[in-house]
Here is the input.
Amino acid sequence: MKEIDNKKSFEIWLDNGAKQPSAIQAVELNDYKEKIMRLTFDESIFLGCEMTDELAGHIVKTGGMVISNGEGIAFENHRAHLYTVKELFKGFDINKVKGYEETYDYKVYEEYVANGMENPLSIRTSLMRRLHDHSITDALGEVLKGRKVVAIMGGHSMERRDPYYLRVAKISRTLTQKGFLMVSGGGPGAMEATHLGAYFACRTLEELEQAVNEIKVRPSGAPDGKEYADEDWLHRAWRIIEKYPIPNGKEKESMSVGIPTWLYGHEPPAPFATHIAKYFANSVREDGLLAIAKYGVIFAPGSAGTTQEIFQDAAQNHYAPYNKHDFKKYVSPMILFGEKRWTEERPVWDLIKKASEGRPYGELLHLSEDENEIIDIILKYNPEDYSFPK
Here is the structure.
C-alpha cells in the first residue's frame, strides 16, 4: 500500500483519481473538499488527518477507513514523522526553574501516569497508544532507509562530568563523521553523550570539549547518579544548543536518533538528538532499538538496564543464523566499552564470551578500553559477511 504524508503527494494522488489504495498520514484535508467528494476511496486508510465530519462520512461510505486523532488526549495517535526536539520540548521556558514541566513531553507523561502506565485504564487509551507507537515505527523506518546504524547503550546515571561521558561523545562524533547514524535509548547519561557527539560532528573537537566543561557543572549539593533530576539539567543543555547551533546546511551530517519511552518519562529525552522516536511501549522500543543497529552496538558503562540489553542483543545475534524466513538477519558487533565495568563491577564478559563460543557472533564480541579500537572495529565490519540466510 502506498503511503502519503505530505500535501504535494496527496494532490497528485487525488488528480489521478485516488485509484491506488493508499495510507494517507497526518494530512490536512479540508482544502480539498470538492475533489474528495467526487471520488471513492475503497481500501484506503486515512490516519490522523484533519477533516470535517462530512468528509469523514464520505470516505467511509465509499469504502475507506478513517482513524482520527483522539479528542481529549494529550498526544496524536498517528504521526507521519518522528518528533523533533522543538516539538517534544514545546512550552519550555529557560527562565523558569521548572520549565520542563511546561513542555508537551512532560504533559504527555503526566497523562500517561494518570491513565495507567503499562496497564491502561481503558481500551480506548490502549488502542490510541498502540496506534501512536505503530506510526513511530513506520516513521523510524523511513529515517533509517539506507543508513548505517550504530547504537550506543549505557547508564542513565552517568554524569556529564564522568570521563566516560566525553569518551562516548568522542566515539559518536567520529562515527557520525564517518557516515554512521548514531542511535541510543534517547535518555540522559551515556545516551545523551551519544547525541551530543553526533550534534558536534561538524564542529571542532575543542568545541565539544568546551561544551562538556560548560554543561557538566551541577548545583551545589546535588546527589550523585541522578543528574537528570537537577532542576537545571535541561536548562544547561538548552544553553549549549543556543551557543553551538548546528551549522547551516549541516543538519544531515549532524543527525542522530534518540529512541526513548514514556515508561521512563521522569527522565527527559536527550535534547541533542535531531530526531526522536518516542514510544509508550518500552518492550517494542528496546527490542527494536537493538535490532536496527545492524552495524554494531557499543555498551558503555551502565547498570541493570544496560546489562539486560547486553543479553538481549546476544540473544538476537545467537538466533540470527537460524532464521527460517526469506529475509536476511545480521550478526553484528557487540563491543563492551569499559574493561573494569564489565569484568569486575558487573562481570558479564566471561559469561557472554563463553556463551558465544562456536557461534558466528563470537567473532564479533569485543571488550575494549580504547576509543580508537572501538571505532576501528565498527569501520572494518561488513554486515554481508555475517548475514543469514546467505
